[in-house]
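Hi all, long-time lurker, first post. I run a small reading group and we've been trying to get comfortable going from sequence to structure in the token notation. Rather than ask abstract questions, I figured I'd post a concrete chain and ask someone more experienced to write out its structure so we can walk through it together at our next meeting. Sequence below, copied exactly:
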Amino acid sequence: MVTDPRSAPTQQSLQLILARNLISTLSSAAFIVDPNAVVVFYNEAAGDFLGIRYEETGKVTLSEWRERMGPVDAEGHPVPGGDMPIDIAHREQLPVHDSGMVRPPQGEEHHVEMLALPLIGPNDSYEGAVGVFWSRDRGQE
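-- Answer (accepted) --
Happy to help. Here is the structure in token form:
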């Protein structure tokens, strides 16, 4: 029986717990992805950017997160998933920085800077990744 990873109870690693504590204090939008590609938390600034708070959504898959972020190309067409910094950091377990355009659900396009950092635990175990982003249009979101 396959269960939805969003609803499965999880024992979070110390790295995920500490990352959640850290991003809760950031004024920049930030989120955490666990090793199963589930966004297990995003902060208030990310909720403001997306127009929906974490308490309203709970965990979402990384593909659902990409849909909410709404990455678009220079002509405003949706960008296929897999190439956002968080995807690359999750897949390759390396830090990644990039810029691009996103159109969250409220429909306003933003030019954003994105940084994603892998979370590495004891014995070099991959524990997840943290993504941070901010709008270049109007300073930090």
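A couple of things your group might point at:
The domain at 14-135 is CATH 3.30.450.20 (Beta-Lactamase).
The first helix runs from residue 14 to 23.
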